[in-house]
Design brief:
Thrombin, subunit H; Peptidase S1 domain-containing protein; Peptidase_S1_PA_chymotrypsin; Peptidase_S1_PA; three-stranded antiparallel sheet; disulfide bond; globular; TRYPSIN_HIS; single chain; 24% strand
């Protein structure tokens, strides 16, 4: 599977050379040749105010769709990222990929780890093995 549309978001320090990559803080998905879409929590601790009238800031609107009635149970999802390969280790320098089964929210295991099934879903091997955060 090719992941050419997946990007790492990195933070550099002031006066850091542009040829030295900054530290990874999040990832995103390319949505066109100029923009990447990422999770809101990637930027919830910005130190500087963001001017939403800046021409470099744009909003996207996802079409209303009754997605809550669609079930992904018994399907497989693919999670990718620069994750820890084992607990208490460093991030991988190689992009990792894992295929995980989507589990019903009616499953007790999922109800214990998913706090809002409208905005989250459960994809995991209940018996253990590969996973992602």
């Amino acid at each position: 599977m090719t992941m050419d549309w997946f990007v790492s978001l990195r933070r550099s320090k002031p006066n850091q050379s542009s040829i030295i990559p900054g530290s990874l803080f999040c990832s995103g998905t390319l949505i066109n040749n100029e923009y990447a879409l990422t999770a809101a929590h990637c930027f919830n601790k910005l130190r500087n105010n963001v001017d939403i009238n800046d021409s470099n800031i744009g909003f996207i609107c996802l079409l209303q769709n009754n997605m809550s009635t669609y079930t992904y149970e018994s399907m497989n999802g693919i999670a990718i990222g620069w994750e820890l390969l084992q607990q208490d280790s460093l991030l991988s320098y190689t992009l990792q990929q894992v295929q995980l089964p989507v589990i019903s929210y009616t499953n007790e295991y999922c109800r214990n780890i998913v706090y809002d099934n409208i905005i989250q879903f459960c994809a995991d091997f209940i018996q253990g093995g590969k996973d992602t955060c």
